[in-house]
Specification:
It comes from Actinomadura barringtoniae. The chain is mainly β. It has one helix and six strands. The strands form two sheets. It has a four-stranded antiparallel beta sheet. The chain has a two-stranded antiparallel ribbon with strand order 3-4.
């Protein structure tokens, strides 16, 4: 087994994982507007949340994403906790329509 190689960054370059974000927080542009997105590590996820993408529970201890509109920075009511795959697929999903038992399927 070969020893681990320590890679050094070129002078003036950003370290790996530092893509201009602050503590895992970045701004993402999507078809539904500009969002501030923050990643939550599993160790920091202490409460269960309901994902708006799949309407499933995100249990405590599971890493996920918190997102809110960029134009309302102080709005804590607009923050939503998403599974990472649900957040990435939000543009491809249609709204989940609740139908009655005998409602049409179209």
């Amino acid at each position: 087994m070969s020893p681990r190689k320590n890679r050094r960054n070129a002078p003036g370059a950003q370290p790996e994982g530092a893509s201009g974000s602050l503590w895992g927080q970045s701004t993402e542009e999507g078809p539904d507007g500009e969002w501030i997105v923050r990643t939550v590590a599993g160790a920091n996820a202490i409460k269960p949340y309901r994902c708006p993408g799949c309407d499933q529970l995100i249990p405590a201890g599971v890493p996920h994403v918190v997102a809110w509109p960029a134009d309302e920075r102080g709005g804590t009511d607009d923050r939503r906790h998403w599974h990472r795959p649900c957040w990435n697929a939000r543009g491809r999903r249609t709204p989940n329509v609740q139908r009655s038992r005998n409602g049409p399927r179209y």
